[in-house]
Design brief:
Layout: H1 3-56
């Protein structure tokens, strides 16, 4: 194998290693963001459930407009 060809392969390998490291960091960042969004989603679902429970206790049927409409 010629020296030039060997250097080209080393450069490609270095580039691929760098790209692989960057992709790994991006995946880690995205997973952290997914975890935060999942937690926020669960919190919102719980809040909606609580609000639905409290409106159901008011005596009015679901979907019925309150008297002030």
């Amino acid at each position: 194998m010629s020296e030039d060809r060997f250097e080209q392969l080393e450069e490609k390998l270095a580039y691929l290693e760098m790209a692989n490291a960057e992709l790994g960091e991006e995946i880690f960042r995205q997973q952290k963001e997914i975890d935060v969004l999942t937690k926020a989603h669960r919190t919102m679902l719980e809040r909606v459930e609580v609000l639905q429970d409290t409106t159901g206790e008011g005596g009015s049927e679901q979907g019925e407009r309150p008297p002030h409409y």
